[in-house]
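Hi R.,

Here are the chain sequences for the assembly we discussed:
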Amino acid sequence: MNALRVAAVFRRIVAQFRRDPRSLALLYVAPLAIIALLGWVLSSSQSTTTRVAVVNESSNPAGAALALKIENALDGQAGVTLDRSVVDDSAARQKLEDKDLDLVVVLPPDFSAQNRTFDLLTLGLNPTGEAAAIPAVQKALLNAVAGTLGIALPTFERTTVYGSPNATQLDTLAPVVVGFFAYFFVFILTGISFLRERIGGTLERLLATPVSRAEIVLGYSLGFGFFATIQVAIVLAFVLGRLDIPALGPIPAFAIGLGVSTIGNPLIAYLLVLVLGLGAVSLGIFLSTFARTELQVLQFIPIVIVPQGLLGGFFWPIDQLPSLLQPVARILPVTYAIDGLRQVMIAGADLSSPQVLLDLAVLTGIAAVFVALAAATIRREVA
Amino acid sequence: MTAAPEPAVRPEPAVRPGAPAAAIEAVALRKDFGPIHAVDGIDMCLPPGRIYGLLGPNGSGKTTLIRLLTGLASATSGTARVLGVAMPSRANLARIGYMTQSDGIYPELSVWENLSFFAALYGQTDRAQLVAALEFVELETRAGTPAQDLSGGMRRRLSMACALAHHPSVIFLDEPTVGVDPALRVQFWDHFHRLAADGATLLVSSHVMDEADRCDELLFIRDGHVLAQGTPAELRTRAGTDNLETAFLTFAAMTAATPPADPAGPPGPAASDGPPGPVGTGAADPAGSAGAAAADPAGSAGAATSAVDPTAESGSEEIAR
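And here is the predicted structure of the full complex:
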């Protein structure tokens, strides 16, 4: 291992990227744009109100009384708008179809003091969103029913061990997004860079010098590690920081950064991302062997990147995956990076946590396998 | 001394007295790609300090032979030695310069960045040496220009500077003058001769016969065999012609006439030892005249560049079949 040669490869990677502003933009601007979009969607979609109507189809007088009580309970409920103009089931369905209502509480014809089954009627086009509206309505129903029985419902307050019970999806997604982006961009950029070495004849030339395979892989890792470091710093600053810009003339007030709160140590988060990125560099070099054009490198995205996004615990916890997919998830490097990042950024774990150490160890192992694969394919003859 | 780690190489080797007799050596060297024998049992022993021309049509095995000699390809069988060290040897590569057939430079990087990058990999960090290499290829005023903004000939020159900046003892040049303008070509060859005079050994591949006369010694190669080896004058005499193109075709026809498959024996020397039975090769004319024109240096320039590639190549390939 010759430090001069490693440094030469490193400097070359840096010089090449400095001259390629579009790739730099991909590396630094694209993640910010995507995270900003994600933050916007996730934080704003929480604050919609549910438009509710109550319909009494039963002839039972108790039903009519209860329907009125439910309406009164719903009227004061936060996040709920009550529509008192709907008279029967068919009018309710029409209003749902016209998107004038989100949810209808129906007291069916056979409703009685003994048979207290309500129907909750929704449109059925957006199961997740419709289900999310139900708890507020359910609470109003319980209050109304409890009122008729003359009892007071117990109240409860949520607390959590980590973070806050008011944490949004954004608060748990944003810190781990960092790892995924680093992996994605480092993989793509290395894969294409190395492919160009192969097809441009420079690899042939590199291999005719005394540089070793290990020196090439290390030089590449340092070069892309350098850019990944800057990327992680920028993305973390954007996710964790928040700069409020006051309204100025016609421009309304806005904020730069998501301001997600964390108790974690960003340096440990960076360490996790770095080891993940090291694996991505070598994976890019390795897979470039199987590509003949840049387009063919991009074809690895659905094979390599997308499954990691779906299975890596990004959106769904690993143990909620189908049992056949769980072992798959457990061999993906992103799985361990996301777990480690959550431990560090949300639970505030540090290097004394066995969970974080395990994640780091597995990531290091996976990176070592990829480094070995990359080094083995570099001498592959270009026939 | 083959696969040992780096320091195994003596610093100032080979070329000067007391060094191995051959700077470049091949023993029964063979490389198969599936059913194709790209290099078909080549033996050669090239003493240092001379310019060797490797001549043959496209697909004759020139590049594969160079890749075997530099250790970039692994031989199916046989041995390749450079400066007495069996290849592949990574440490030995520090004493070897290789200009590939493609430019092999980084388009985004400037001339200077390309040159200093490759030089650094060879351990050459002396700025003055890099400047001298740039001056030799007349790119000193373009040091800051990105390689992608250079003309084809300039890229070729940069590629050459990258192969020579570390002062290698053995230099492989794979079609170095393709795309280089005639005046600079003459300078290239003058420089090659200076390098050889200083003790370097050069193996220059070409499919252009007009460059052959500038070499000290020629190896005619076809179908992975060495057809003949000798100085240009010797080869002309042996073939009974004053035209190297015709000589090549004569040797090719002789090899074809002798018993077809003799993969065991070293075909090169065997073929050239035999009496030069003249074979009708009138078909060689268009390309042959270009080769003849090369004999007078002044006239060669223009004629050579225009005549080079398509004519010479198709001519020899057609006959070679």
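Chain B has ten helices and ten strands. Chain B touches chain A at residues 6, 33, 70, 72-74, 90-91, 93-94, 96, 98, 100-109, 113, 117-118, 120-123, 125, 146, 162 (CB under 8 Å).

Let me know if anything looks off.

Best,
T.
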